[in-house]
Amino acid sequence: MLIVQKYGGSSVANLELMENIAKRIIKTKESGASLVVVLSAQGKTTDNLTEIANQVNPEGDKRERDMLLSTGEQHSIALMALILQRLGYPAISLTGWQAGIATSADHQSARIQDIDTGRLEKELSKGNIVIVAGFQGITCYGDITTLGRGGSDTTAVALAAALKADACQIYTDVDGVYSADPRIVPDAVKLSEISYSEMMELASMGAKVLEKRSVGLAKKYQVPLWVKHSHKELAGTLIKEGDEMEGISISGVVANTNIARISVSGIQDMPGVWFKIFNAMNDANIAIDFVYQTKHGNGTKDISFIVESDRMADAKKAISDNAHKLSYTQITSDTDTAKVSVVSKGASANPGIPSLMFEVLFDAGINIDSVSTSEIRVSVLINKDHANHAAGIIHKKFLDEGYIKE
């Protein structure tokens, strides 16, 4: 049996925690499994390195930032290998490039293109516990890249897929996937299992327990994916292919405050504008949501959309770099908006779900700025100050109505 485990930054934040994680790794190894372990940088290391880079040169080249940020994971994996060796277990640490992870050249938001598993399989055949640096890879030009926020999750699932592992276990500081963030919604329910599609929607709406790209990879390659607590012996949540039976249930309520609204004003109302906007974002590898327009009587229109807040500057730059194609008059941005989403298997088939959601917000006096729906979710944009309260009261209403089940 081959298992891939991933431990996040909070799980390996100091040497005492790393010693505890080493015991869990050894327990898995002694069960007879071959084992690949993916580690994040310790604690706030990546944030600290980013802050240092900003102090040195806030406009610095992304390639050099990747060179710096990638050192955090290398620190973690070397320490873990040394701990395991001291405890009498053969272990070897590998950087992303040593593990054969080839990526695109999009520094700080690279995509995994291929994994050469030769070195990994060789080390596993020797009986080694293989410790791999998450969050990083290498381009065809030999440059180190990082995969963006939550990149270690993506590393783990990609390795599990490439190695055809029997399971991928994501260990974190929560004991599974909840119907809402238990830190802001006390009555949140832990789910014993959830479908890939629902988990991907929750992740894309702002749930922080898993990175959305990792769930997409797990679904594509049918990797059994577990979310478990790093330091507690609990069952966790299994993410797998969902059944196709009809039925209405709520998987989760998510409040995402890490978003920014970009508005491009004074664009000429003519064919091709939407293509130019989306093409500029695609070239910059920026995902956008809640795209809408306002037309004016003078033949112009304003286009607004939502991006992750840490990509706001990149999005504005992508638009300004295409000013000669778009002929706009102004770009504005703000981070005063939040997105609150309800994810449900039957969202599109049951108008009662958005109706109930909107009723709760109306009763609370919370104004809805915009609405977006998909087959399995309903999302609204509201003022950021109301985000956590809105998530709590919406969750309570659906829980009371019996829509949320463990």
- Whole-angstrom Rg: 22 Å
In the sheet with the most strands, the strands line up as: 3-6-2-1-9-13-14-12
* SS-based class: alpha/beta
Number of alpha- plus pi-helical segments: 13
Query: How does the overall form come out from the CA principal axes?
Result: globular
Beta-strand segment tally: 22
The main sheet comes to: 8 strands, mixed
Helix content: 25-40%
Distance between the termini: 29 Å
Write up this protein.
The chain is of the alpha/beta class and 406 residues long. It is built from 13 helices and 22 strands. The chain has an eight-stranded mixed beta sheet with strand order 3-6-2-1-9-13-14-12, sandwiched between helices. A four-stranded antiparallel beta sheet has the order 15-20-22-21, with helices on both faces. Helix 1 crosses helix 4 and helix 12 crosses helix 13. The chain is globular, with a radius of gyration of 22 Å. The relative contact order is 0.11.
